[in-house]
Every structure is written in C-alpha cells, then in structure tokens.
Backbone:
C-alpha cells in the first residue's frame, strides 16, 4: 500500500483524461490582460491580472458566470482562439493529460463567427498535439439561459461548419432558471446529425438528470451530483454505465457537491455507488485548480490511492466519444505511462 506522499506523486505523474473543461474558463489571467490590451478593451471591472479571478466569490454562480463572460469578451480573433487553445492544452500536457474533450461556448463570444473560432481552435489543438502529444476534440455548448431558438441555431451552425474535431454538443450556465426540457429540439437536431450529447446538471433536482437521459438523449452527465439523492436513478445510471464528469474543486467552491467544506462526500458516494465517475477541473485557473490538484483534493479528503485514481482515467477513456480503436490506443498509452513510474 503506497503512503500518502507516494500517492500525491502518482497523482501528478499519472495519465489523465479530461472530459469537463471549458476553453473560456482556462485562460491564465496574464493572457486575459494581454488580450484585453491587444484589443484595447478594458479589463473586466477594471481588474488586473492579479485580481481578475476571485475564487471565493464564485460560491455565487451568477458572479462566476459574469466574470466568465467578461473573459470571453477579450477573445476576438483567430489568433486569440489559437493561443488560448494552445496554452490550455500545453498546461494540461504538463499534468499528463493525454486526451481532452473541451467545451467551446459560442454564446460567450457573440462577436466572433464560427469559422474564425473553429479555425483558431483547430490550429491550437494541432500545434499542441504536435508539440506535446495531447489529443483534443471539441464539444460546442449552448447557454441554457438563452432562448431555445438560440440553441437550435447553435446546433445548425455546428452542423454547417463541422470538422472531424467536433464530436458533440453540451448545455451549461444557470440550471435553475434554464431547465433542460427547453432544449429538447436542439438536442434532437444534434442527434439526427450524428453529434454526441452531454449536459450540465449541477444545481438542479435529480428529475433534471432523468430529463437529460430520456428527453435530450444525453450520453453523459456533467456534474450530476443530485443523482445520489434518488436511489432508483442511481441504480439505473450504474446499470446503464452513464458517465458523470465530476469537478471536485469547482463544485466544492459552489457547494454543489456537498457543503463546501472540502469533504467531497457526494463524489465519494457516487464512486461507492459504482457510478462511472471521471474527474476534471471545469474552469481550472478561475477556481485555483489544475488537472493534478483536483485529484490531490480527493486523495487528501478521501484517502484514494493509485488504483482509484487510475479508475478515473479508465472511466474517462470508456466515456470518451472515440471509436474502439482510438480508445484502445489511449488505453495502451495510459498503461505505459502508469507503469513507467
Ligand atoms: Zn462545467
């Protein structure tokens, strides 16, 4: 049995799969400041790189989303998307992330057209793969607080400008005021076009998870902590192997995965119930975390060892929207990395 120090070193060195990370939430504050200066737009609220992110204030989701939108507003041209994609993937590769499916939020960049966004992001992920070996694919997410017609328009744009790197669609922002059933038509359109489907359920009731599975035909649930308050739903999700992309640090700050005291009790309950849990950072620098730190938080709070940490990676590979041969490649790469230490 490895001691805690060995496990922390293992958490840093082990191969990781990232299925719940939003590009707009990954910008280093210095990058935000530089892009703001480049475009001659003021920093959000007159903040500096040092004061841009205030983790404590994100207990209020509205405040977090407000800052996220302000960050999105400094990403304006192809180079901005190239740079930010390359930077987040470079950092992820330094934490031994080997594969990521990353959320892109067009509603956060209302002044940027789809071809500009997609060309910049694609250039960034190609360069990151060439330089660091990390593979990244994309999920275009709609804003659930917008009009359902905007969601349909987003899906139409994704279909119109689709590339092989775009695997599916997502749904995020404020859940209580944006119930998922409003987006059934957008999700049906995406399914018909062969796009994969996932959606956030963090603050809403367990019924929303049932809606995501049965009405929106989601293949994964992002967060989904409320599942454990409904034993029948928990059994169903376990039996159907529904993946849950949990984000310990960001959800703890928001008090969605528990009481906000760092116990991560809800994630522990999901793991104990046999659910297919994966671990990621959501919006890492905004919440003061990174791909290793989210695992370290679980090691410290729950005493997880290397076997459980690797199970998160294996769950991530299984839950990835890749074909069997790409998954086999990832599995062998992960195995080589985890035994090389
Ligand atoms: Zn998220």
Residues:
């Amino acid at each position: 049995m490895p001691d805690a120090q060995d496990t922390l070193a293992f958490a840093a060195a082990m191969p990781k799969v990232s299925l719940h990370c939003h590009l707009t939430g990954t910008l280093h504050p210095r990058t935000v400041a530089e892009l703001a200066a480049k475009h001659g737009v003021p920093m959000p609220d007159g903040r500096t790189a040092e004061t841009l992110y205030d983790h404590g204030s994100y207990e209020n989701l509205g405040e977090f989303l407000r800052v996220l939108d302000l960050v999105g507003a400094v990403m304006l041209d192809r180079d901005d998307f190239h740079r930010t994609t390359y930077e987040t993937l470079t950092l992820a590769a330094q934490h031994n992330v080997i594969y990521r499916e990353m959320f892109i939020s067009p509603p956060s960049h209302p002044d940027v057209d789809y071809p500009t966004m997609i060309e910049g992001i694609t250039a960034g992920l190609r360069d990151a793969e060439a330089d660091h070996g990390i593979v990244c694919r994309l999920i275009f997410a709609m804003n659930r607080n917008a009009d359902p017609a905007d969601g349909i328009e987003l899906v139409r744009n994704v279909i119109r400008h689709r590339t092989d790197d775009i695997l599916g669609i997502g749904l995020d922002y404020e859940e209580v005021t944006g119930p998922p059933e409003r987006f059934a038509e957008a999700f049906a359109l995406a399914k018909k076009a062969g796009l994969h489907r996932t959606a956030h359920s963090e603050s809403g009731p367990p019924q929303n998870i049932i809606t995501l599975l049965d009405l929106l035909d989601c293949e994964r649930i992002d967060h989904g902590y409320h599942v454990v308050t409904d034993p029948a739903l928990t059994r169903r999700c376990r039996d159907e192997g529904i993946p849950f992309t949990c984000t310990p640090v960001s959800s703890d700050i928001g008090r969605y995965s528990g009481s906000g005291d760092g116990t991560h009790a809800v994630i522990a309950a999901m793991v104990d119930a046999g659910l297919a849990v994966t671990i990621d950072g959501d919006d890492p620098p905004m919440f003061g975390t990174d791909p290793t730190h989210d695992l370290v938080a679980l090691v410290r709070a729950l005493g997880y060892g290397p076997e459980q940490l690797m199970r998160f990676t294996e769950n991530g590979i299984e839950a990835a929207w890749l074909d069997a041969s790409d998954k086999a490649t990832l599995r062998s790469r992960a195995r080589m990395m985890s035994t090389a230490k």
The two ends are 16 Å apart (CA to CA).
